[in-house]
């Protein structure tokens, strides 16, 4: 099976401003339609094709980050970027699990980039995330996560999320991981991200810190791992995010 990951496009106007948001929304829809029709979107020419969307021109587009969904690419038989073999040294973790975690993260971040993540009360959508990086799986970060999973320390420029789940005989690690990733991401509903202007304020830190780490636009490399720590019978999921340098 040929896997695809979501791809990042950053479209900037000449003066680098954010552009018109109505044009931004129309642009994201147009990109997805083009992909369903089997077209190949070239990141170097995308801004020109988007210039024909409604009344928008190329100069209307700010630093829009559009993340195309893997399933939309698969329907047209095309891939923007295949997921490579990870090549990480920890053979106790499967590449299939890594692929699942990577794809899930980027799908969630894609939804935030195009303004499709609910915030407090369910009546609002979180602000669109401009300059959203596509996450890549970093084997060095995975090793760091594995070495420090049972420690409380974290290096400057790194962000970590951790939670322990029951290690039962019939435990399905992928299913348990899926539950936790969705739980962490759903923290967007615990705080009004519109009122907080999508900034890491005290309310966000207190109520949605896990979501904030997963959604931080400037993170590039990340990895997750799982295992047991001394004195615990549960399995610990540990995800580490490294800010782009």
UniProtKB/TrEMBL annotation:
Residues 96-244 form the SCP domain. It comes from the Eukaryota. This is SCP domain-containing protein. It comes from Ancylostoma duodenale.
């Amino acid at each position: 099976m040929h896997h695809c990951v979501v791809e990042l496009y950053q479209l900037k106007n000449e003066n680098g401003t954010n552009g018109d948001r109505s044009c931004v929304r129309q642009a994201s829809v147009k990109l997805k339609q083009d992909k369903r029709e089997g077209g190949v979107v070239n990141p170097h020419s995308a801004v020109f094709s988007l210039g024909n969307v409604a009344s928008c021109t190329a100069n209307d587009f700010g630093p829009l980050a559009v993340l195309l969904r893997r399933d939309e690419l698969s329907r047209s038989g095309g891939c923007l970027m295949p997921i490579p073999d990870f090549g990480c040294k920890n053979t106790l973790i499967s590449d299939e699990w890594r692929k699942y975690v990577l794809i899930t993260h980027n799908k969630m971040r894609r939804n935030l980039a195009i303004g499709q993540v609910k915030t407090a009360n369910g009546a609002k959508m979180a602000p669109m995330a401009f300059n959203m990086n596509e996450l890549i799986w970093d084997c060095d970060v995975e090793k760091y996560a594995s070495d420090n999973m049972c420690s409380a320390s974290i290096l400057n420029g790194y962000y970590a999320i951790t939670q322990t789940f029951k290690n039962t005989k019939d435990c399905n690690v992928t299913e348990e991981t899926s539950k936790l990733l969705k739980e962490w991401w759903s923290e967007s509903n615990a705080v009004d991200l519109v009122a907080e202007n999508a900034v890491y304020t005290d309310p966000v830190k207190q109520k949605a810190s896990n979501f904030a780490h997963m959604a931080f636009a400037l993170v590039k490399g990340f990895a997750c791992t799982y295992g047991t720590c001394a004195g615990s019978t549960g399995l610990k999921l540990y995800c580490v995010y490294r800010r782009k340098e």
